Amino acid sequence: MTDSIEKAWFVVHTYSGYEHKVQTNLESRTQTMGMADQIFRVLVPEQEVSTVQDGEVKTSIENDFPGYVLVEMATPQDGNMTDEAWYVVRNTPGVTGFLGSHGAGSKPNSLLPEEVDLLMKRMGMTGEKVVDLDVEVGQTIKIVAGPFNGMEGIIRSIDPEKQEVEATVEVFGRETPTELGFNDIDTNI
After folding, report:
1. pTM of this structure
2. Cα–Cα separations (whole angstroms), residue 50 to 37, 62, 103, 180
3. What is the largest CA-CA distance in the chain?
4. Residues 6+ apart with CB under 8 A from 90
């Protein structure tokens, strides 16, 4: 394969309740059939949900789209997956087809980049690029997004892994703490 291969996400339809089994089967088949250069990631779209029952916070994992699995695949041919990758995914036990396919062996449409970003954010996986921000605690920053847009704040803590800073902003004469993403601040004041 050449280095010019693009990647795209496709939605695979499965039997409801078999999403994790399909994920495991597909990951295994990818390795055993030598398709690791064409099938990259397999994800079940889930998110962590917290509920309060009897005064206790309980956390559970909920499947956002029962019956569907996301597969990241190489798209070297005009935005379409290869025939080999299509065959491996389509013939994985538990897979009933691709979303966006017109049937009769036609190739499906991939998800749009904005759809992928939205799904990744819902699942707690940032699709955003990592920002390298040179800031330090005590530094004054300008907020460029969100409810405090246009205001200045003072950095109280920095979390490079989450790409967030905690800053205090003066609102009605009181210091108010807020969490801001690296993309939501400007250090050039």
Report:
1. 0.61
2. 37, 10, 39, 22
3. 67
4. 97, 98
Is residue 19 within 8 A of residue 68, CB to CB? The reply is yes
CA 6 to centroid of chain Cα atoms:
17
At CA 168, angle to CA 163 and CA 173, rounded to 5?
A: 160
Where do we find the tokens 């019956």?
67
Counting as low any pLDDT under 70, the low residues of the chain are: 1-5, 77-78, 102-105, 126-132
Q: Using an 8 Å Cβ cutoff, are 60 and 51 in contact?
A: yes
The per-residue DSSP string of the chain comes to --TT--EEEEEEEE-TT-HHHHHHHHHHHHHHTT-TTTEEEEE--EEEEEEEETTEEEEEEEESSTTEEEEEEE-TBTTBPPHHHHHHHHTSTTEEEETT--STTPPPPPPPHHHHHHHHHHTT---SPPP-----TT-EEEE-SSTTTT-EEEEEEEETTTTEEEEEEEETTEEEEEEEEGGGEE---
At 91 the pLDDT is: 93
CA 101 to chain centre: 23
CA distance 92 to 135: 48
Q: Cβ distance 107 to 80 under 8 Å?
A: yes
